[in-house]
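Suppose you are handed only these lines of text.
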Amino acid sequence: MTRQSPKVGVYGFTGCAGDQLMILNCEDQLVDLFGATEIRSFVMAKSDNHEGELDVAFIEGSISTEEQLKKLKEIRERAKVVIAIGTCASHGGPQAMKLGEGGWEERYRKVYGNAKITISKAFEAQPIDAFVKVDMYIPGCPIDKGEFLAAVSKLVAGRHPYLYKFPVCTECKWKENPCILYAGKFCGGPLTKAGCGAVCPSYGLPCVGCWGPTDDLNVSSEYKLLKEKGYNPDEILRKLRKFGGAKVAQLLKDVENKGAKA
Amino acid sequence: MILKMKKEDLSTFLDSVKEWGELRGPTKKEGRVTYSRVDSLSQMDLKAARTIIPPKKFLYPPRFTMFDYDQDGYTERLGDVPKRVLFGIHPCDIHGILIMDKLFLETYKDPYYAERREKTLLLGHSCIPDDKCMCIATNTDFVAEGFDLFFSDLKMFYLVWVGSTKGHDLIRLKPELFSRELDKNDILNYTEYRKWKNSQFKTKIDLTGMPDIFELGYGSPVWDQLGDKCLSCGQCTMVCPTCNCYNVVDEVELGALEGTRDRFWDSCMFREYSLVAGGHNFRDKRSDRLRLWYTHKLQAFIGEFGKPACVGCGRCVETCPVEINVVTVSTALKEQEVGK
Amino acid sequence: MKKLCVVLDEREVQDNPYRPDMWRIVRRYPLTNDVNFYQARPVEMEEALKFNYKPGQFVMVSIPGEGEAPFSISSTPSRPGMLEFCIRKTGSLTETLFEVKENHTLGVRGPYGNGFPMDKMVGKDIMIIAGGLGAAPLRSLLLYVLDNRDQFGKLTYLHGARTPGEMLFREEFIQLKEREDLNCLLTVDKDDTDKWQFRQGVVTELFKHVGPIDSKNTFAVVCGPPVMYRFVMPHLVRLGLPKHQILMTLERRMKCGVGKCGHCAIEYLYTCIDGPVFTYWDVLHMKEIIGRGVSDKTVA
Amino acid sequence: MRELNVEALARVEGDGGITVTLDGKKVKSVTLDIHEGPRLIEQLVKGMTPADDLNVIPRICAICTLSHRYSAIRGLEKALGITPPEKAQLTRELMMLGENVESNSLHTFLLALPDFLGYPSAIAMLNDYADDVKRALRLKKYGNHVMAVTSGRIVHGENPVLGGFGKYPARKALEEIKLKAHELVPDAVRAVELFASLEYPTYSEADMMFMSVNAPKKSFGFAGDNILISNGKEVSAEDYKKLTNERVVTHSFAKRSLYQDGTFTVGANARMVNMGKRLDGQAADLFKEHYNDRWLKNPLYNNLAQAIEMLWSLEHIPDAADQVASMEDPATAEPTRQTGSGTGAVEAPRGTLYHHYEIKDGLIDVADIITPTAQNLDDIERHMKLTAERMLSEGKKDDEVRLHLEMVARAYDPCISCATHLVTLKRI
Ligand SMILES: Cc1cc2nc3c(=O)[nH]c(=O)nc-3n(C[C@H](O)[C@H](O)[C@H](O)COP(=O)(O)OP(=O)(O)OC[C@H]3O[C@@H](n4cnc5c(N)ncnc54)[C@H](O)[C@@H]3O)c2cc1C
Ligand code: SF4
Ligand code: SF4
Ligand code: SF4
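From them, the structure of the protein bound to iron/sulfur cluster can be written out as follows.
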């Protein structure tokens, strides 16, 4: 089967640009990547960008201004498939952890004072699926080269990408690390989607959750466990909320509410 | 055949078996005990009670390629597995391999497993139980088969069981190190050793009657309580010597329609594992999944083969962060209460 | 006494149970909106003669780069040299399969599963009850019995679909109604065409029209969506059929088809090698299934 | 009034645009607008433990991830009274060398070079300049590799922690790094030659002020406790506020900095102006050969400065790797107090990066982060304005003006996502 190379766009919104950078970090495959796809738009990598119909739009970053929202909707309209790359696009990223003193407005005021910024109205960061339909997620902070290339290779071949659906712990065991959580210390592995190869536990460090929440997570059990091990509730919240955005924030709220009732 | 060997000769012997294949043994590095590649006995830690992952990883790696494919079809990736000698395998892990053998070598022989099994020599070693070992309850504290050689450490010397022709071939690499002369004292020594080992177990569980208790406890609220705790992290399945479930995925080369078909460890603790078309899930709840796991190990397998699919290695005890393991689950079912 | 060493010889590699052989799609057309019909022949013709199967068995179908999934064989072994499938579009593999055109190749391995116990069914009356996609494996049995008509007793075929548009093999089954040697009853829940000339209502309604049944001498074979079992099973038990003569096929996720990957395990049974055909008696002992589609108010 | 827009400023990380407003023939204003949304990171880390902070703040910017991490580690260690073991220090230096090679090769070859050679992207240059593109990818991959070996991952590695490392790099990996560095030196030399051979237009030239850290022991380097200013002054990093004076402008979510009411520049060019004489090896020879007075006025020389710096980094990796390999792994150093404050300053590839922390009872009370791009923005606008004015008065076409404006902005290697990280200066 010969297929036409898909028309691809890569876009970045609020985030650290790490996922786009990871695409550029595919040094050995970059030339092939540009050969196998027709990259119509990739502002971080080139200046001859043509906006128009797309087969696949890779979107990095969360949405936090009206202007971005407009642009996001416009991309959705002309892209057959929209793929969220990175944890910001998939879950909102660190800027959506809904933590810090006061609500978002107050935090904003603390940073910008009362100055009116004219370029666009800002709001608390949200993942892209808060506004448009997302066909696929390639999470990670940043995305993993291998996982990204495997997915793109499949898309180019007209196949469905496959990403691990299980938590980091599984890969952690493949790497034969003794369990940090078992030892009584914090690790976010059970709540976090695999794909990174359990990098952090392999360095003897806890998983901080940068792949975002896995599909089937038991926040309440982990919360209880950490409390038993002597962590204070506030610290647990701050540890667990770093990357999971509204989803984890909500699950934790449920846990707290249940705790309050009990 | 049982032979006798001086303890100080072990090192020489292991140097000679490298002629057959790469030497692997238990090592301890940065607090992790694993089977890894070693050059000599001095790099091994024979005192460690267990490795994080059982030796199944050599026979059935966490992820490997089954086929290369292109438009014309699938070609198996066989033949590139190195020959290996695994030294220091404990009886429980040999029992685990025997269970894997049943699964992978009987009806529909799995060539990937078979090739690795063929190219791997298992050199067992006796062990000292720690507070998590419970092989005495699963009847796997000693082995009669499944190994090529088995070394019982009787303080002054080794008794060496020869379990296969390949094992015997190894002996013949250095016949001068082994003696056939066993006397009365050796028997007494060995009896003493067994008595001593039996007295070392600190985890006392009783698995008799488990099938019935599982049948009776099928609808027990204990399962829901355990389900509330389980993190679905899958660690228990990865470390269990008798867990064999896997998933398969095709990978594609960039810009081509060729690639590999890969296989990797899966776990029945995952929701996706039992999901079918239309979003229906036969085991949507964690409690359902835990029940499947433990029913398989402690009820169904006993029903089929007369022994549990738990070899008492204590790995689930040493890894589950929320203390769900063979000991706590069987106790909870018997006492109808989940321990603290 | 002792287990000898494992030796893997060339022949065993040749028999790698996981290796798909390449088959060519020779016909492909839609049966309904989301179900396609496929007919495939082996690329190597001698394969065709070797490929022997029983109704009720399945094969693993591969699309290179996409993966593999189990599909029932819809054709009958009495017409060798090819295989037929009906495939519903539900996910990754099946979507890609819908894009694979005639003359392209697929990987096929099998046949797997126990299939229907044809040796026990010979000489008996056969009642086939199909709902929706359940017609896929049952068509194999139906065609097999028709091709060996003299070996079986009375043949009844009941088939229900939601609408005429969703009835698999509609024209093929309508033609069967002309035949004297079977009782073919078709029904739809709802007629969306205004051209449907047969019955309307759920499939259990058809039982009213099957006439007298020699229940002890009948094998009933059921395949359909979970809800259907809930209604059909009690009906059959009420008609007096022994539970071990009521057969059904189960569906589970499968990655190997040969009892290794674990996905299809139901307690100690593997759907792929111990099934997919089970008797009602077997199923009643599968605690996981009771209350999930198959209910059993008749047990007590 | 007419507007000349460069909508999305291509080939910078993040999202920005340039607007030139013309009033008749006069340039009324030139603004670099930052569309990247606000993230309020400093507010979010308030109340976190220092270790948790380290997981979040590198995410301000992927391309300076290790600079952020290192700067934060320096600030936090000062605040908590941690004295890192020597091996940790050396490993951190090694990781910074890796980041410098990676980031400078990405910027010079892949982002800046296409402008000078008239291509829309590095990939488009493949046919005519295959060797250079491949050279760039080789260097970049190597820089990434050094980062991965030291920090655990190419981007956002969690391995560098307070008081040390999760796990120190393996000797074998260090040996490989060393061998490969030697191999790549010719590539870096070629990079210097290439960037020295380019013509740097004069439109943007004007007197400039430069700042960088003062690397200790009179050597060239990327971290230090004091800041050098090209007017000859030296200021402690703890006084960073006097240097940077952040303010909000209405056309951007990034804050701006002024020093003594004047704009200033940080980055490779600044490092060369302040510390170029301290370079050694081939980098020193090439610096001497190519350095001249125009560097003091023309931001486009930042490209050449980066190339020379990349060579220096590469030449220093083998030694650094050897030193790390020669030491035993020390234990992680522990905090000696739970309340305190401290400022870390490091040289990210694009300039000085400050992380200031105040810690109370083990939790972060104040976090203040000043990024290089935020410091550069005013100078970028100033040089863009000059460029626009001069080019328009020469009657240049809009397209050409647009390209040159982009070249100026790009020369600063702005990391826009990093510039929109937000800082509390005025505490309300
Ligand atoms: C013995 C047997 C016979 C079958 N016969 C037929 C047939 O004749 N025609 C037909 O259309 N389908 C049949 N199926 C179901 C078919 O295998 C699934 O529809 C198919 O695997 C879905 O694959 P997918 O990649 O398209 O879906 P996926 O993208 O993998 O998933 C889509 C949905 O299908 C589910 N799914 C995945 N694997 C299976 C599975 N093995 N069984 C059921 N659901 C699954 C997923 O959980 C998900 O909900 C049969 C299944 C079995 C076990
Ligand atoms: S260390 Fe963390 S990731 Fe690894 S198994 Fe334990 S909880 Fe999971
Ligand atoms: S282990 Fe966790 S924090 Fe570390 S890279 Fe993986 S997902 Fe991210
Ligand atoms: S039982 Fe324990 S180890 Fe197993 S999945 Fe649940 S939490 Fe993880």
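What can we learn from it? The longest strand of chain B covers residues 22-29. Chain B touches chain C through 65 residues (CB under 8 Å).
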